[in-house]
Amino acid sequence: MRKSLKFLTLIVAATILSCGGNDKKEEPGYGKKTPAKTEKKTPASKRIELTNKGVGSIKSITLAAEIDQDMATHGKEVYDKMCTACHKVDKKFIGPAPTGILKRRSPEWVMNMILNPEGMVKEDPLAKDLLMEFNGAPMANQGLSEEDARAVLEYFRTLK
Q1: Residue 113 belongs to some domain of the structure
Q2: CATH code of residue 92
């Protein structure tokens, strides 16, 4: 009987030692509440990137100090006809609002986005981020001439 009692005690002790060890590795966040990330990334539509010229044929644009009113008027006509289905002048819609765009983007980037939206979304990181911000709705290529796109850019200059 004593041998059985000793044997039983030995088994209980071995069980306690093998199961009772508390060297469980902690996994990140296991059993603990980790604080949510507080880093907020600026949305692409609010980001300021004035050195990015985008992807496309427009490499350089020189804007006159004064707005060309005739060109801006033509640009407004083109914008009203071709762009208002997705863009509202002063508020976010299917696409971003153009008001103040030249405070956030270079003129070349704007022109390349108007003339080459497919290439921009494919290769330009900012255009990719905008596509994600606006729920994957890509900008349609309206087939504008460079002259019409430049007129739209001049119209954008009038939007403060």
Answers
A1: yes
A2: 1.10.760.10
